[in-house]
Design a protein that fits this description.
This protein is mainly β. It is about 10% helix and about 30% strand. The chain has helices at about 5-10, 45-50, 50-55, 140-145, 175-180, 195-200, 225-230, 395-400, and strands at about 15, 90, 115, 125-130, 140, 150-160, 185-190, 210-215, 225, 235-240, 240, 250-255, 265-275, 290, 295, 305-310, 320-330, 335-340, 350, 355, 365-370, 375-385, 415, 425-429. It has a six-stranded mixed sheet, with no helix packed on it. Strands 5-4-13-8-9 form a five-stranded mixed sheet. Strands 6, 7, 10, 11 and 12 form a five-stranded antiparallel sheet that branches. The model is unreliable at about 1-30 and about 30-35 (pLDDT under 50). The structure holds ligand MTE and cobalt (II) ion (CO). Ligand MTE binds near residues 112, 115, 158, 261 and 263.
């Protein structure tokens, strides 16, 4: 399970390259018809001999009432960066993006971010209260919510505002799991928040809401009423089953396209007010400290971003010849319209093939089929969304925001693929 690359994520590695220094990396990707990837048939005992699993009975259906991945997939796990959080309770781990495909994140590997650990809540004892500037304060049980007309299902990404935060000052962590893995993409089942607010009757001076968590952090954030009414969901389901405890069982708020911190888990109360509350998570945290000492506040929307997940430091190129490059793109402002990929550090770009659903505020999967001749590559991807916004380079971002911030780093990522296929996190300056 532990590869060389996993170990290196625990230290700090930096590599800076001049764009011109990588010899011969100027060729565009050869996107021609893919040559034979399989070896010509010749005698192979794994095909000619009968194997153990071919002659003995396996376990029956009683072995796993709730299924688990094959034991051969043990490496597909969330990982953390030991120096990042001081303890296991105020903690964070990362989605293994390089091991996944398609656009949906399986429930068991959705990254987790807890400010005071996972609350264990009996759904029979859980309540959601709506109070504050409403005509009729309400308290819902889980059963009340689940039988309510108007239930919906939607796929959305959740990205922590701190995703990539460790990379603001330079390339540091070796693996897209660590540089980009504070994101997951899930189908949520729940009731539009608007339905609940309408039932309570928001007073005309009700301009903000404050969701509150039932964990001991009692997480709270201020959300403008327009967003609450537009597309927020009070959700109890993820990918067709109940929320995982780690993701806020039995109830969380879904705030599509906006920073993960606002998606309060273990949701117990929503207060309606006439102004923001200015709590910890929107003052000392989740504000972007600029070079001149001022801070950007209320930077809720996650701008367009992308990353090549394969090849990447944890998933090096293993073969010359036909290969598939793949990655993910997303935007908190709408849908992904196009993704371009470069293999020469951003000099030449080619438009990637998007496959699968392109859904607003949801992950989008892209591919480039290419032949690798063993040359060094400087791989980048650049997302564009349907507002016309184009993902910036890290230097462009730093020019605007300096290097103090840890939030909202959506700069273009560069992977250096060496001649032997090993891949590293680098920056071009
Ligand atoms: N809600 C509560 N109640 N407590 C928390 O610690 N963490 C927030 C948010 N909601 C948090 C919370 C942060 S910072 C993020 S990024 C997301 O939950 C993470 O959601 P996840 O654990 O499902 O990935
Ligand atoms: Co977060």
């Amino acid at each position: 399970m532990t590869s060389k690359v996993d170990d290196s994520a625990q230290g700090s590695r930096r590599a800076f390259l001049r764009g011109a220094a990588v010899a011969g990396a100027t060729a565009a990707l050869a996107n021609k018809a893919v040559a034979q990837a399989a070896a010509p048939a010749k005698p192979d005992p794994l095909i000619t001999d009968i194997q153990d699993w071919n002659r003995t009975l396996g376990p029956g259906v009683d072995a796993a009432p709730y299924g688990k991945p094959s034991p051969f997939e043990k490496h597909v796990v969330r990982r953390n960066v030991p120096w990042l959080t001081a303890d296991a309770i105020s903690s964070i781990n990362f989605t293994p993006l390089h091991e996944l495909d398609g656009v949906i994140t399986p429930n068991g590997v959705c990254f987790e971010r807890h400010h005071s650990g996972v609350a264990e809540i009996d759904p029979a004892k859980h309540r959601l209260m709506i109070n504050g500037l409403v005509d009729k304060p309400l308290i819902f049980t889980m059963e009340d919510l689940k039988r309510m007309p108007g239930r919906i299902n939607r796929p959305y990404f959740l990205e922590c505002a701190a995703n990539g935060g460790m990379e603001w000052r330079g390339a540091q962590l070796n693996g897209c799991q660590f540089t980009h893995g504070m994101i997951h993409n899930v189908w949520y089942t729940g009731i539009p928040l608007k339905t609940l607010l309408d039932e309570a009757g928001v007073k005309t001076n009700g301009k903000w809401i404050m969701p509150e968590g039932a964990d001991s952090a009692a997480m709270t954030r201020s959300i403008p009423i327009e967003k609450a009414m537009k597309d927020c969901i009070v959700a109890w389901g993820m990918n067709g089953e109940a929320l995982r405890a780690e993701q806020g069982y039995p109830l969380r708020i879904v705030v599509p396209g906006w920073e993960g911190n606002m998606w309060v888990k273990w949701l117990r109360r929503i207060e309606v007010g006439d102004q923001p509350w200015h709590h910890r998570e929107e003052t000392s945290k989740y504000t972007d400290l600029l070079a001149d000492g001022r801070s950007r506040r209320f930077t809720w929307i996650m701008d367009a971003k992308s990353v090549v997940t394969n090849p990447s430091p944890q998933a090096p190129l293993r073969h010359k010849g036909p290969n598939v490059l793949t990655g993910l793109a997303w935007s908190g402002r709408g849908s992904i319209r196009r993704v371009d990929v470069s293999v020469d550090g951003g000099r030449n770009w080619q438009t990637a093939r998007i496959d699968g659903p392109v859904s607003p505020l949801s992950l989008t999967r892209f591919y480039v089929d290419f032949d690798w001749d063993g040359r060094e590559l400087l791989i980048q991807s650049r997302a564009m969304d349907d507002t016309g916004y184009v993902q910036p380079t890290k230097d462009e971002l730093r020019k605007l925001r300096g290097t103090n911030s840890i939030y909202h780093n959506n700069g273009i990522q560069t992977w250096l693929v060496r001649g032997n296929g090993e891949t590293e996190n680098v920056e071009i300056s």
